[in-house]
Amino acid sequence: MRVAEADVGRTAAAPTIAAGPQDSAPVIVSKNLTVGYELHRERQRLTALRDISLTVNRGEFVVLVGPSGCGKTTFINAISGLVKPWEGSIEVNGRPVTGPGPDRAMVFQDYALMPWRTVESNIRMPFEMQKLGLSQKEMDERVRRYIDLVDLTGFENSFPYELSGGMKQRVGIARALVSEPDILLADEPFAAIDAMTREAMQSELERFVTNTRQTVVFITHSIDEAVTLGDRVVVISYRPGRIKEIVNVNLPRPRFDYDVKMLPEYGELRDHIWRLVKDEALQTARGAK
């Protein structure tokens, strides 16, 4: 079943307590977006996403879940400007997306750090790639501020091989935030981290977002992670990806100050999303045969 944007909020039972801060100003607007790829060897066109309509408001944390290959990464690549629509449109801050820009930043699953650069040098990279009109003093102050924000003070001169997985991911987050983009795009950033570090990083990300008021679009395969972090969870169907349902997550923040998983509403939301994703995973398995 596909749920239109007008139906958001009626897709699942939700608790009455308020979620994280956001306002009604739209930042990302996708209208009937269809995106695909040319498979030159097979001389075919693969449709990754079809007819995606979604509005993300300022300060909102939106999580995308769905089976592998359903187009989640393609969607954030369209937001970032790395791929172009076949049909429909996507706008950021009221303007059509024509390519990458300093108002959007990406956090990757595999850290994507330069091994020959120190923590400070990796975080400083956006200043070398973008013209932000900042003085050297302003750039230095920003780097210092975001090193502090991700709790890496004292590791400024360390190289990636000297850091743990969680520390490397914090460098990637600081590098994404240092240009102070309007939108943070995260493609399974904690998938390669052990369970204990992953939970700690989820807590830190929530703290980062609260402090910076970032608008976030986040991909995960973990339903627990989706419910714990998101204001809304967008369930994407089997390829070509469509919005199957949008689920509001009206749980209080900060969610890591107490055991939010003990709330009955948490279990209801998790079970509801699991049933949606399970159906799509079965479709994926059948399609692979």
From TrEMBL:
**Keyword annotations of the record:** ATP-binding, Nucleotide-binding, Transport
Top-rank taxon, per record: Bacteria
Matching Pfam families: ABC_tran
- Which Gene3D superfamilies does this UniProt record tie to the protein? P-loop containing nucleotide triphosphate hydrolases
Q: GO molecular-function annotation terms?
A: ATP binding; ATP hydrolysis activity
Query: Can you name this protein?
Result: ABC transporter ATP-binding protein
Q: Does the keyword Transport apply?
A: yes
* UniProt key word ATP-binding: yes
What PROSITE patterns has UniProt attached to this entry? Answer: ABC_TRANSPORTER_1, ABC_TRANSPORTER_2
Q: Which family does it belong to?
A: Belongs to the ABC transporter superfamily.
